[in-house]
Amino acid sequence: MTAARHGAGDFSVHAYGELDSTNEEMKRLAAAGKAGHGSVVRADVQTAGRGRRGRVWVSKPGNLYCSFLLLPRRSLNQSAQLSFVMAVAVADALEKITGGDRAVTGKWPNDVLLRGRKIAGILLETVSVNPEGEESEGIVAGLGVNIAHYPEDTAYPATSLEACGIEGQTPETVLRGVCAAFAPLYGSWLGDGFEPVRAAWLERAAGLGETIRVRFGEEDLSGVFEGLDGSGALLLLEDDGNRRQITAGDVYFADTALQRAS
Ligand code: BTN
To answer: What distance, in Å, lies between the first and last C-alpha atoms of the chain?
Structure first.
């Protein structure tokens, strides 16, 4: 594995041809003291790309596969909010690329949709870092954005920029857009906490105020999506009047004609 290094604003990008997973490579670099805050690993292809809940993330050439190393020095509970910071950054970047017609939305917890279909996913993991020999905990924020292709057989329907008629983008151009959007949002999160990010995420939240389904393991809940609490948990008013704070699960929208029954 050889990596070319170049800068992207506040970020230093290590670009590879093929990796097992950019999250894995970032963990290796971080553990070896070879990556610091703001390092980004990008690969043209992943042979073992993974999504949330151990799902496979199909990673053929043409899409963006990258991982950011972040050392926020916050509790793990707070650091988990970085998935929303990244989701808002990706949505901002895609809105610029697609011409800002408000077709970009967020699906809880951190999927980004274009015209109601999933175009990007985020996988946050923790990592041991070794800056100057001092062991501490960092966050790897892995991001996949569908540019040239998308998987057909997913429980929630997907799309790509090209499938939506947006040509001329590459993994490099999309990554530059994400880096430019992420840097100020990360600064605001560090300085002002979760509230501005939460508000920005809610502005584009798909299904807000509507009846949704949330599935987690054997649980299949239905209710009105009322918002996010101060930690990023989904607030659900169940059909029986019960209020729940949901911290993990997959959201499905009741009225989405696109959605496959699964
Ligand atoms: C999801 O929606 O399930 C999260 C998908 C995250 C995929 C990205 S691609 C780059 C990084 N490396 C991985 O192995 N996964 C993440």
So the answer is: 39
Query: Is residue 253 in contact with ligand 1, taking CB distance under 6 Å?
Result: no
What residue owns the CA closest to ligand 1's atom 2? 121
What local confidence, expressed as pLDDT, does residue 5 receive? 64
Residue 257 pLDDT greater than 80, yes or no: no
Residue 49 in tokens: 């790309």
Closest CA to 11 of 40, 33, 31, 36: 40
d(CA 208, CA 251): 11
Q: Which of 123, 147, 156, 178 to mutate to test the pocket of ligand 1 (most atoms within 8 A of CB)?
A: 123
Tens of pLDDT along 52-105?
Answer: 989 999 999 999 999 999 999 999 999 999 999 999 999 999 999 999 877 999
Cβ atoms of 41 and 29 closer than 8 Å: yes
